[in-house]
Amino acid sequence: MADDSLASHRRDPIKSSVGNVAAQRRRQNAATVGKERRESLVRAKRLCRVGATGEGDVLVEENHMMTDEEGFLLEDQTSSAVKELKSAVVYQGKGAMQKRVNALRELRRLLSKSEFPPVEAALKAGAIPLLVQCLSFGSPDEQLLEAAWCLTNIAAGKPEETKALLPALPLLIAHLGEKSSLPVAEQCAWALGNVAGEGEELRKVLLSQGALPPLARMVLPNKGSTVRTAAWALSNLIKGPDPKAATELIKVDGVLDAILRHLRKSDEELATEVAWVVVYLSALSNFATGVLVKSDALQPLVERLATSNSLQLLIPVLRSLGNLVAGDSHTTSTVLIPGHEITDGVIKVLVKCLKSDHRVLKKEASWVLSNIAAGSIEHKQLIYSSEAVPLLLRLLSTAPFDIRKEVAYVLGNLCVAPATGEGKPDLIKENLVSLVQRGCLSGFIDLVRSADIEAARLGLQFTELVLRGMPNGDGPKLVEQEDGIDAMERYQFHENEDLRNMANGLVDKYFGEDYGVNE
Amino acid sequence: MEWNAETLQYLSQCFLHTLSPQPEPRRRAESSLSEAADRPNYGLAVLRLVAEPSVDEQIRQAAAVNFKNHLKTRWVPSNDPNAGSTFSPILDPEKDQIKALIVSLMLSSTSRIQSQLSEALAVIGKHDFPKSWPTLLPELISNLQKAAQSSDYASINGILGTANSIFKKFRYQYKTNDLFIDLKYCLDNFAAPLLEIFLKTASLIDSTAAAPGGGSLVTLRPLFESQRLCCRIFFSLNFQELPEFFEDHMREWMGEFRKYLTTNYPSVESSSDGLALVDELRAAVCENISLYMEKNEEEFQGYLNEFASAVWSLLTNVSQSSSRDKLAVTAMKFLTTVSTSVHHTLFAAEGVLQQICQSIVIPNVRLRDEDEELFEMNYIEFIRRDMEGSDLDTRRRIACELLKGIATNYKKQVIDIVSVQIQNLLSSFATNPSANWKDKDCAIYLVVSLATKKAGGTSVSTDLVDVQSFFLSVIVPELQSQDVNGFPMLKAGSLKFFTTFRGLIQKPVAFQLFPDLVRFLGAESNVVHSYAASCIEKLLLVKDEGGKARYTSADITPFVPALMNNLFNALKFPESEENQYIMKCILRVLAVADISSEIAGPCIVGLTSILNEVCKNPKNPIFNHYLFESVAILVRRACERDGSLITAFEARLFPSLQTILATDVTEFLPYAFQLLAQLVELNKPPISPSYMQIFVLLLSPDSWRRSSNVPALVRLLQAFLQKAPHEVNQEGRLTQVLGIFNMLVSSGSTDEQGFYVLNTVIENLEYGVISPYMGNIWNVLFMRLQNNRTVKFQKSLVIFMSLFLVKHGAQNLVDTMNAVQANIFLVILEQFWIPNLKLITGVIELKLTAVASTRLICESPVLLDAAAARVWGKMLDSIVTLLSRPEQDRVEEEPEMPDIAENVGYTATFVKLYNAGKKEDDPLTDVKDPKQFLVASLAKLSAVTPGRYPQMINENLEPANQTALLQLCTAYNCQIV
Fold it and tell me: What single-letter DSSP state applies at residue A358?
């Protein structure tokens, strides 16, 4: 793995003090076991049912559930269409070209007819070698287009079916070049996007065959469906987990400018695809993250968040923003300077997201805030005095678990001063006192009771702050009122040594019976 | 160790003898084996023996156990520096061979051997899996698939059991990249085969259960067991976060889960054994759905309603039954999780709370036969669960947790319903107290368990009832009951209530009941007299506002004779001979009451006779600790009142202490030395000759070999040095003391103790006495400095030099050091004193070193010499840093180096006796403020040669320190001219 990939979690090891809550957190783990979520609105593979350039000649039957019979019929028709294509390919006589195009078009129609195209039948009948042959150099555009379209829909199938495209990849990539017509290049990009969406292994193949530079050049123009398709294909191609592709992409001449331009000016659809590209760039490559931050990528992201109401767009834009904040400390320290317009803008859009009804937006916005809250005292005060705090406090007591956990990181970070290099970070008493007075402690004690060990640790760390930091020694009283002693006592024999020691230590220190108390 | 017929024969014989009832051959065999265990390939040979079908089964079993234990201590990475020298680790080639053999061996062995080998495999897995054992998982999977084809459930369950134990680490470790790489590897390989076997077994269960007769327990047992293991593995693999595979196949998993919660298997469940079997599976399912409910509620919510109602109706049945604990507990935990989640509205519907309370909570809180049995048969365990929070998994406690969970969103409703329930229970009791006493117990339990705990366990609060009136009407009648042995569980519950709410019960009310508490110390039930003791003990700790004790010595003194009498008598009840609650109460009473000689007499008699008894076989360390603390506090407080009592105490205690020393009761030695130190300190010189015998023992290097003794011995030695300095200087004893210092200071783990000894010598003896030894002492210290200079050692050295200086003057310090090697003083000063001075912590230490350093630069000709100007300046710089900056700015926390001390088997540990403690002595009582001392000394010095020192300060002090020094001068109105 390239060396710029693993700076991902900056969480410091945490001892009994809460101090290190103020470590930045970044989503991307080198190993993920959860499902990848593009929040299921954008699928990694896409079927092409209407021509990319709108010239579809198939009657698309929306929401039509095929009966079994229709299904069998379709499969039969597909097998014969492939046979037809085979004879057209060998045929060398007059009108050979038209015959080939017709056969391809028929196969493409069948593959575009339903939501569940007869891919298996086409593969069984031996479609791939024929289609590869139809992609050979010098073939007329119409033929190339139809062949690529067929491949696109085959690639949209199951994993094994997508893999069947392997022999076609070099030619599909070759047709991305400047010499190809736009429709052909776009269709090829679409097919490749589906292949890249399948998984890491195929992505590696595509990258080694040089798919990235020509795809990258396709996003340079100002508009058009080609740009959109290419951006989508790129977002699939750079998904990693190896960050090399992302780093390579940002280095391609003009790509950075194009990305910024699209984020600023393009329609929402294109901006959405480009935002997904930015998501993966910033999640994987520290180099790309640095470049984006230095090029003011924050500005257009914030504007989009402020002006758009499209969830499809807001999700990748918000996540990009979060990655830029978490991925590069430069973002918080030199771009998001309190007092600058951009900083107020960021807080404002995050507040907007916190208010949204959508769970993902709330969670991601809290996550971004938690990283900003890990910044300087001024950052903490900025958030503290913003509209975010009342929202966060409400979420801490009412939101689902995953959001509560993120929110707790924000509130926790607001209460500890940044580590100054030497010694433990101090707590910020005013914030702690006021947040506790506004009722946040019970939310943290709930986290202590959680089965999730990170959440439990955070809960314990905040509890420690309260015990140590509330004036007049009020901490213990407050903690006990929230039944915190009981919550901590659950860790008496916990298998996680760190949690066990932390909880037992707090109980002993603050609630232990004074031994020989009458001295 | 080579594998041949001879080895086989030899090992078989050894293992056979380890099973011998005769101690002689058994011990011989054990020691032969432990010797053989150090040879390479021993583990491999034992494993081969286990696999040898010709060998008798019981020998192979013994070998399997030995093999597992062998691995536990020796399967450590061969390059691990912390592995310790005790056991030679198994070498890599042998490890590889063991790993190649163990899976197939485990699967082909009989169940007893299989379980041992499975544990052994888990031990290996803990270190090696997956990175250093890439073949394990594929091997398990291919065996699993083979076994599945032939429905060989002995093997299937063996494999699943193994997988379960190696995956457990995913349940409690923090999310780290490494952990996730391991987890992903396990998921990629095992998630699909797991689902496959789970579904296969499920359909086998379905078809077997659907057949006429519903299948026998014998057929179904391995199947249910298999499903339970699958569920436990599911739990481990899903613990960190929801894996993609499990999300994609949630429907399949949840479908089966629900089936097990809602289906009855009459042919199996008709026996209690079979019911327990199915219940274990159900409990595992409940844990899984609780996990999903808590962490993946969004993905799980589609299944929530059906599971909530399934669990509810299951619980309604289970709650009526008296066994089925585990299932009841896990099922209630699931409902608790739902009640505190965003989906708590499931509980909002009309009548739901009422039903939960009536058909789930109350039945589970009611005493069951098992509780009564535990109360009678194992009082310690009962108290641990009932009083000390080890009841996290009891039905009673979890039922209350469920109520608390619901109350997070429906507090008022819960309070209303429970209050009514409590009234109902109490009126049911009132109609027929002897038949319905459990209703009252249930009511008391609810009130106590639903209360919120408060600091120090001294008080709690509750919204459920009015504590005062509940206490008067419900609890007091029980406590005033004349029969201390009637309805003991109800008495125990009432005492627990009193203890729990002690802060809320007004003094006059509580005080009136004091004689009753004393009376209950005489109850036959161990729980009851323990609770009575505990209640008294806790009452004596109650503080009023402002931190003043609510119950004073004046309050309790009239009761003390009766109280002490009953306490000592209670220790005579069967099984209460070492009752820690009673001993703790004795300690507390001795800490509060006036210790007149009338009380001290019987107490010391009682305590020493107990001490003599426990010396024979120390069992309960907590009891023993309180016992020694009681002795210590009795001696201390009684002698404070009447110093002449010391002789009586000595007369009583000496025989006991001598027994401990003479028979080497390891656990008690540190206590004995601390008590002796206390006695020595209370003595007036000349010290009685009987102590001098002990002094001799103290000076024998043998006494110091055990590290647990060292802190207590140091303390005792200090006491002797202070009280009997002359005796120390006789018969070559000082040489012996310094020999001990030498031994302690040479090792990094005891060097601080060594300095304590040395400092005590320096502080208490005349210079004339110690001066002949100084050369030797310096040599020892410089040697250590050369070999192993830790920061801790250097700081201790600076403190020692400072102490020497203030006691015996700068000139003696410089001269004795330079006598060892010319000019070494300045070298030590520059390299060690100056840089470490600013790291000194502790009020006394700081003052000592600051004053000594000040005197050095103001009095010592070596430093006042013009040639030493730079060193002079640096020293002052360091002093100013020490005095002007807060501790956290000058001292970086040094990571404690773990001591790699020799650990030879079991060692007693040192526990400090609080009440025999020593007050820290300030060797410099005449200087109050080291800052003032510094500037005043400087002012005086500079006045002699005006102009000289400001320049030196200017040249050598950091600017910040120059400012700080100036501020100090202003603050104390002194001038450096």
Answer: -
